[in-house]
Design a protein that fits this description.
mainly alpha; two-stranded antiparallel sheet; Herpes Virus-1
C-alpha cells in the first residue's frame, strides 16, 4: 500500500473509532476560525455529549460525514457570550438552524407562537 492510501485508511479508522472526539475537535476549530472563543477542550466537550438532541430528542448520528438534520451541532444558548460549557448545548442540525440566533427563551417563545398559530388555523380552517 502506498503512503497516500495508508494515510487515508488510517485517517478513516481514527475517525470511525473516535467520532465524538473528532467532532469536538472539528467543532472547536470551526468556531475558532469564525472568531469565537471556546473556553473548553475537546475532551471536556466530549463529556457533555448526549445521544439525543437536547431540544427535540432526535437521535444524533455521530459520523465524520454530514448526515442531514440528525448531524450534531454546537449551539450557544446565549449568543452574546463566549463559548463555555455552561453556555452550549448539542442540538440536531434542524433545531439549531431553526433556533438560529435566538436565545433559548426567545426560541421557546417562538415555538409557542407557532403552536398557537397552528391551533388557531385549525379551528378557523384558514391559513
Amino acid at each position: 500500500m502506498d503512503q497516500k492510501k495508508y494515510k487515508k485508511a488510517y485517517s478513516q479508522r481514527v475517525r470511525k473509532a473516535n467520532p465524538y472526539l473528532i467532532w469536538a475537535q472539528y467543532t472547536i476549530y470551526h468556531h475558532n476560525q469564525k472568531g469565537h472563543s471556546c473556553c473548553f477542550t475537546p475532551e471536556e466537550l466530549v463529556k457533555k455529549i448526549t445521544p439525543n438532541c437536547e431540544i427535540c430528542g432526535t437521535v444524533l448520528i455521530w459520523t465524520h460525514k454530514k448526515t442531514g438534520h440528525t448531524s450534531p451541532t454546537l449551539d450557544r444558548m446565549d449568543n452574546g457570550k463566549i463559548l463555555t460549557l455552561d453556555n452550549v448545548q448539542i442540538l440536531c442540525r434542524r433545531c439549531n438552524v431553526t433556533k438560529h440566533d435566538r436565545t433559548q427563551d426567545e426560541f421557546e417563545d417562538y415555538c409557542r407562537m407557532v403552536v398557537q398559530r397552528a391551533a388557531t388555523r385549525d379551528q378557523t380552517g384558514r391559513a
